[in-house]
Amino acid sequence: MIEELLPVDVMSAEAFDDDGDIHLFAEERAAVADAVPRRRREFSTVRRCARTALGELGIPPVPLPPGRHRAPQWPAGVVGSMTHCSGYRAAAVARASRLHAVGIDAEEGAPLPGTLLDLVALPAERDLVERLGAQSDAVPWDRLLFSCKEAVYKVWFPLTQRMLGFDGAQIEIDSGGSFSARFLVPPPQAAGNPVPRLTGRWMHRDGFILTAIALPLPVNESPVRATHTRAPSRTFLGTENR
Q: Is Transferase among this UniProt entry's keywords (predicted)?
């Protein structure tokens, strides 16, 4: 499903269950040595997805240990993102010569629990969720908002190496399947240029919400692309960026 949200330069792979017999490199095993079994399974499966996607770029299997703030460490010259939720794991990668950053997120397609929306949403975003909910109750708009913010963070962090509060960017959601984020803090820099706004795509299907952002190089930086075909303020984002 995730590849439908991504441009052709991005390779992706996904899984809907876990295989207990997945090879991990020593650095990866050490990262989850003390983790509970569920965490080890999702960690392993999402790295299998990542290595599958990297293989589509012609990159052989390499260790992908979590680094600072648990963000995955990609091979040199690669940008990427991982995500997992109950019943779904995915990874997306691209050459850094094609894109500045990629951010994907997957969430259970159900409303946020309790009062979590009040913790993660700006007043204007809570109004947005209310308006969208009045138009249609087919999508858990609060959960979609949360997922959009997670995808934004996964683009933000590789560019800044800094945390981002939930109040650091304001999300706008279009019911047709797109969204945007406007930074309310000094924006990230890409190739020396500020990136004040990000745009992405979303879907709600088969019990999941998926969001994706691909930050392209400016046209004057991008090489000619070969065509191919293929089937609250101190509350921080990035809970699944690992």
A: yes
